[in-house]
Amino acid sequence: MNERFKLEKVLKELSEEQESSLEELFNYYYPRLYDFSKSFLKLEQGIDDILQEVFIRIWHNRKNISDPGTFNSYVFTITRNLLLNELRSRLNQNNLKEEIRRLSIAQEYTNSGEPDYNDFKNRIDQIISELPERQKEVFILSRTEGLSHKEIARKLEITTKTVEYHISLAIKSLKVKLS
Question: Which domains are assigned to the chain?
Fold first, then answer.
């Protein structure tokens, strides 16, 4: 009840244009609103500006604020609405940046003239499947499974030089057949 009584007093002083009451509200609500804003935006950048706007709006509407029972909701609603506006603004800025980037790249550098990734991957898989059995096995262990030359040599019971030889032949085959 003390908290409510104090808020009633502060809101009464606020409506009487006592700036110290705004400072009391700021000191009480700022940490809570900051944490709320940080969890909402996931970034700290811009929060101070938003919270400053919250307290400016409270000051501008001070004559209409009198109910301490709804004041907490009022403050958080203002904050939430300003945060949503900020998120929309950031989204629009990102969309605008992406649109400018897209428009600034010459058409010949976009993917429209290049083969589709899946077609390219399928072609590589086909070439690999046509490699001699040992080359294919070594290449797959190296490139797909990520084993080192030593690990492949141990696993297949061959020398690391033989592993290097098979990989270089496989890469040469890929280059020739892809060009």
Answer: 2-104 (1.10.1740.10), 115-178 (1.10.10.10)
Per-residue pLDDT tens over the stretch 72-112: 999 999 999 999 888 888 787 777 677 777 776 655 555 55
Q: How far apart are CA 172 and CA 177, in angstroms?
A: 9
Three-class SS state of 102: helix
To 5 degrees, how large is the angle CA 140–CA 141–CA 142?
90
Contact criterion met (CB below 8 Å) for 136 and 170? yes
CA distances from 74 to 2, 17, 35, 136 (A): 20, 19, 17, 68
pTM of the entire predicted model: 0.52
